[in-house]
Amino acid sequence: MAFGIKKRDIDEWKRKIDSGEIAFLTHYWLDDRFPGYKTVTKVGCEDLDKLAAWGTRYGLKKEWIHHRKDGYSHFDLIGPRQKDILIQEGQLEHIWDREEGSLE
């Protein structure tokens, strides 16, 4: 279940994807399959080859891309790998304290 996300953030993520950028969107998310994790970062790009190559740098497999019919295909990042990748990408505004719900 996704929540705590603003429409303008989704629109900006989509705009970046449509322009061929690697785009990041982090939001609160609860899923019984991943207890203890409260956020997910979706990393998308219109150019799936570019997205796959980006993912390869972080050990993500092309098969892990969530293919969407609406054109906003993406990787889902959670847990320690999520934080590590966001730090390496300089996307610090996407790192939230699990307890506080704010930046670490």
Structure description:
With 104 residues, the protein is α+β, with helices and mostly antiparallel strands. The chain has one domain. 30% of the residues lie in helices and 18% in strands. It is built from 3 helices and 4 strands, in the order βαββαβα. The protein has a 4-stranded antiparallel β-sheet. The C terminus is likely disordered.
What is the 3D shape? globular
Radius of gyration, taken over Cα atoms and rounded to an integer in Å = 13 Å
Per DSSP, the total helix count is 3
What low-confidence regions span 5 or more consecutive residues with pLDDT below 50?
A: 98-104
Reading the helices and strands in chain order gives EHEEHEH
Q: Estimate the helix proportion, in percent.
A: 25-40%
Provide the domain count. 1
**Overall pLDDT, averaged?**
87
Distance between the termini: 23 Å
Structural class: alpha+beta
Strand content: 15-25%
Side by side, the strands of the main sheet go 1-2-3-4
Would you report the number of β strands? 4
Main beta-sheet strand count, sense and barrel state:
4 strands, antiparallel
